[in-house]
Amino acid sequence: MWTAARVFSMTDTDGLDALFKDQPASMTAADVAELLGLTKQAVYGWLREGTIPGYKVGSTWFVVRDELKATMRAGSNARPNKE
């Protein structure tokens, strides 16, 4: 299973492509929690704080897969390979 720790330990952002490969275009907070190895409460906190992008319709949050991936890529601390 892919976890956030495994993705963040990679030396480049190609791991994000693998992490998100089979995910639906629209994800629930539960989907995000499972994908990243977090609790739903942690994901809801991140959504409320704006740490990760999301949309609230009524009482339901949803996350656009590609927006979450872009946010994670932008926040990566991985250093580019120098060849």
* Tally of alpha and pi helices: 5
Domain tally: 1
Spatial ordering of strands, largest sheet: 1-3-2
Low-confidence stretches: none
What is the level 1 CATH name? Mainly Alpha
The succession of helices and strands, N to C, reads HHEHHEEH
Q: What is the overall pLDDT average? A: 85
Q: Strand percentage, roughly? A: 5-15%
Given the helix and strand composition, which structural class is it?
Answer: alpha+beta
Alpha-carbon Rg, integer: 13 Å
Structural shape? globular
Measured as a percent range, the helix fraction is 40-55%
At the fold tier of CATH, the topology name is: Recoverin, domain 1
Q: Quickly give the CATH architecture.
A: Orthogonal Bundle
User: What is the β-strand count?
Assistant: 3
Description:
The chain contains five helices and three strands; from the N terminus they run H-H-E-H-H-E-E-H. The protein is α+β, with helices and mostly antiparallel strands. It has a single domain, classed as Recoverin, domain 1. The protein has a three-stranded antiparallel β-sheet. A hairpin with a 2-residue loop joins strand 2 and strand 3. Helix 3 crosses helix 4. The longest helix is centred in the middle third of the chain and has 10 residues. The protein starts with a helix and ends in a 9-residue tail after the last helix.
